[in-house]
Amino acid sequence: MTTGKIAPPGAGALADPFTDLPGYALRRAANAVMSDLTTRLVALNLRLSDASLLLLVRERQTVTASQIGRVLDIQRANMVPLLNRLEAAGLVERVPLDRKSLAIVLTAAGLQQLAPLDRIIAEFESGLLARIPAEHRDHLLPALAALWR
Amino acid sequence: MTTGKIAPPGAGALADPFTDLPGYALRRAANAVMSDLTTRLVALNLRLSDASLLLLVRERQTVTASQIGRVLDIQRANMVPLLNRLEAAGLVERVPLDRKSLAIVLTAAGLQQLAPLDRIIAEFESGLLARIPAEHRDHLLPALAALWR
DNA sequence: TATTGTTATACTCTATAACTATA
DNA sequence: TATAGTTATAGAGTATAACAATA
After folding, report:
1. Contact, B20 vs A55, CB < 8 A?
2. Residue A54 in contact with residue A113, Cβ under 8 Å?
3. Could you count the other beta carbons within 10 Å of the beta carbon of residue B29?
4. Distance CA B118, CA B124 (A)
5. Is there contact between B99 and strand C, defined as CB under 7 Å from any strand atom?
6. What is the pTM of this model?
7. Ordered mean pLDDT values, 10 residues apiece, chain A (149 residues)
8. Which of A23, A92, A32, A80 is nearest to A56 (CA)?
9. What is the rounded CA–CA span in Å between residue B32 and residue A8?
């Protein structure tokens, strides 16, 4: 012991004292789960926001960048580089709706990406649910929905 | 209509088509909840990582920066600016354990910050739980724990 | 007058590689 | 040889302000 006043750190791993805090657990769970999905999406060269945008554009054929941003909670200004990248990748196109607004539409290549994307999302979501003990499983979605909807 | 082929965007707000996906709900809930807590912590001039570090250091009196990083899932390299800021704010000190390791200890000012911090965390966590319908409430923590522990 | 798309900018968080020194 | 602390750096995500043009 060198300082005398302070005990040595101890060899073993430190226990996490916050595991009983729902807010903390929510952050850790979201980080772990989104990191997992991000890794899966690398196979398609997509990011989380890319994937959600592609899926949204399929659902709603005619959407403007501003509308997408409002739904996905992405600032209007931050939609620009996102769309630039997806357009550069040939997955979406900006089609003028009038002289002010642009519709974001899927290209043929964008449509083709949706099949493997659907598969990845389905595997990810089912894997997520599978990790939750059965008695808690059906409560997760309504509990989460209450926190942001 | 200018293009003919594409329908106008529609006046009302767009529905979010992903509300039934647990992974998506998890991300949205975590973002909303953490944004809320971040706002509350502004009153103490603390960030999320600052707060969790202060609380951890109180629980475990003798911890090194590396140990803190392992518990809180913060890279060793990213601990440095975090600790620099907390030390500059006079909330923690780096105390040599030996010639290699540093113990992170609370200063008197750091200890004083813990009282209002505890209050903010308690209000935040109870408010979070209060928003969840009673029948789902007790299931949230075990469900989340299964996703990252 | 409100909204769209855009530019510019900045801050936070996160991730990696590499270096020195010590256990 | 493994670990601690550090530096430097880069990539994401996010936030605000401001602008021109159009609904």
Report:
1. no
2. yes
3. 26
4. 10
5. yes
6. 0.92
7. 36 79 97 97 97 95 94 97 98 96 97 97 97 98 96
8. A92
9. 39
Please name every residue paired with A94 in a beta bridge, in sequence order, or none if there are none: A104
**pLDDT number for residue B62:** 85
- Distance from residue A34 (CA) to nucleotide D13 (C1'), in Å? 13
Cα–Cα distance measured from residue B128 to residue B99, given in angstroms and rounded to the nearest whole number? 44
Over residues B64-85, the pLDDT tens digits come to 999 999 999 999 999 999 999 9
Q: For residue B65, what is the DSSP state?
A: H
Residue B94: strand pairing partners: B104
Q: What is the pLDDT of residues B23-53, one digit of tens each?
A: 999 999 999 999 999 999 999 999 999 999 9
Tell me the chain B residues in contact with residue A9 when contact means C-beta distances shorter than 8 Å.
62-64, 67, 97, 101, 103
- Report d(CA B143, CA A22) in Å as an integer: 10
Rounded to whole angstroms, the Cα distance separating B34 from B124 reads 10
Protein residue with the closest CA to the C1' atom of nucleotide C8? A77
Beta-bridge partners for B96: B102
Q: Structure tokens of B13?
A: 């707000």
A61 CA to D22 C1' in angstroms comes to 23
In the numeric block, the tokens 């505890």 are attached to: B118
B60 has a pLDDT exceeding 50? yes
Which is it for strands A102-106 and A92-96: parallel, antiparallel or unpaired? antiparallel
Inter-chain CB proximity B133 and A125 less than 8 Å: no
Cα-based distances in Å from B119 to A147, B13, B57, B108: 21, 38, 17, 18
**B89 to chain A, closest Cα gap in Å:** 23
Q: How far is CA B117 from CA A1, B6, B34, B38, B129, in A?
A: 33, 54, 15, 12, 18
